[in-house]
Amino acid sequence: MLNSGRSRGGSGEWEQPFWQQRGWILSAGFVLVLLVLAVFTLLTHDDKPAGAAADPTPTATATTGGNDNGGSNGSGGGSDTRPAGCRTDDKDQAKPAKVPSDFHWKADGTGLVPVSKTIGPLKYDGPVWSCFAHTPMGAVLAAHSITDHLSYPGWRTVVDHQVVPGAGRDALIASRSQEDDKPTSGKADAGGYAGFSVLAYNKEEATVMLLLRGPNAAYGTASVSVRWQDGDWKLAPDTDGTVYAGMAQVSGTKGFVTWEA
Q: Which residues lie below 8 Å from residue 7, measured CB to CB, with a gap of 6+?
C-alpha cells in the first residue's frame, strides 16, 4: 500500500487501506495517536465551519492578471504560460498571514475543501479543480484540493492532470489502484482542515503544512509538496509515492494561519 507519510506510528493498523478511513492524511495507526484526526476529506463534525458558503460556479472568473497569457508572475515582469481561460493576479508573493477574504468551503464528496474565487481553483472539470494563483496562497489551496480528491472516484483523472509525472506518480497510481474509492454520498463533514503554514516557497515549488483538527481539540500536522508545472500547481509526491510528510501531534493552532473566520 502507499506510504502516506515519511514516518509511521508503531500500530499494526498502518497496514489497513487508508482510503477506507474517514480521511486519507492520517491512516489507522496515526489516528490512534491523534485521536482520530481527519485525513483527506474531513472528520465527522456536527457544526458547519464559520465562513461556509455556497459552492462557486464552474464558470467563476479570476481577477485580471498582468498580461494576456493568464496572469503576471510575482515580480510583475514576464509571464507564465497558463491554460486557456486561466488568469490570476500573481503579484502577492508573500507567505500568507491570513486566509483570503473570499475564502469559503466547497463540498468534495463527503468533505469540505477551502476554495477562493480569486485565488483558486477557478476551473471545475469533474474531479479536476484547477487554475490556482502562482502565489504562496495559490499553493496552499492547491495542496488542499488536489490531495483531497485522491480518495474519491475520478482520482486517476486527477493524478493524470494534477500530479507531477515521474516515479512518484507511478508509485502513487500502483498503490491507489489496489484500494477502493471512498463513497461520495452522505453528509459533508466540516472541521478537519483547521489551518496551514507555508514552510517553503519559491515560484517553482512549495511545501505546505496542513493543520488538522479532531475531536476534543486534538490537532495534527501533515506536509504536502507542490510544484509549478504547465501553468499550474501540481502535487509532487516522493519517488515511492509518499504524499505526506511531517505527520505529528501538535498542541494547538499557534504558528498556523487558521481557516476560522
A: 245, 247
The DSSP line for 199-236 is EEE-SSEEEEEEEEE-GGG-EEEEEEEEEEETTEEEE-
Residues 104 and 119 sit within 8 Å (Cβ to Cβ): no
Domain boundaries, the chain: 12-65+103-258
Over residues 54-96, the pLDDT tens digits come to 344 333 333 333 333 344 443 333 345 898 889 999 999 999 9
- 261 C-beta neighbours (distance < 10 Å), count: 10
Q: What are phi and psi of 217, to 5 degrees?
A: 60, 30
Predicted TM-score of the model (pTM): 0.72
Ramachandran area for residue 59 (φ above 0: left; ψ -120 to 50: alpha; else beta): alpha
116 within 8 A of 136, measured Cβ to Cβ: no
To which residue does cell 491523534 refer? 34
